[in-house]
Amino acid sequence: HQKGFKPRGGRMGGESMTGKKDDMVITTILGKDCVVNGNFIVKQSARIDGEVQGDVYVSGTLIMGAGARVEGNIEAGEAILGGDVIGNVQAPGKVELTVTAKVIGDITTNVIVIDENAIFQGRCNMNQDAPRRKTPEAKKALKDEKRSARAVLQEALREAQEERVSAGDTE
Questions:
Q1: Burial of residue 28, with CB atoms counted within 10 A of its CB: 0-12 exposed, 13-18 middle, 19 or more buried
Q2: Tens digit of pLDDT for each residue in 45-77?
Q3: By three-state DSSP, how is residue 143 classified?
Q4: pTM of this prediction?
């Protein structure tokens, strides 16, 4: 975790924390022939078409082109990945793996989109609480609800049968 770095997820194309529409304004582009040996830190959005051998920190949206490669962890507000990632990806807003993406590592996000033929080998944590074990009180309440539902159904069937019988008597 980069000290003082806070990804701004969930604001793609909207207002940033400063009130400006700058999350999707790409302020940094790493070209396809560029190689960064060390951490890559951007305070807004960035596009990577080259290679980063280190961790990537982008507070806005990170876009990785089809030929891009990152050997390290990625932290971004949102990430659209089209290249190779060997490392974990953390983007609270959204992670999208395009058809050319290959991610070997874990992904932590609230929303994930994986295109057909994208490669993802790892675990995905969507920041949801694990299902809780039902307490005896909760089990009893559920059982009571099932009983009352069953009673309502039986009463409706009884009424329908009575209507049929009374309709048969009038003919």
A1: middle
A2: 999 999 999 999 999 999 999 999 999 999 999
A3: helix
A4: 0.65
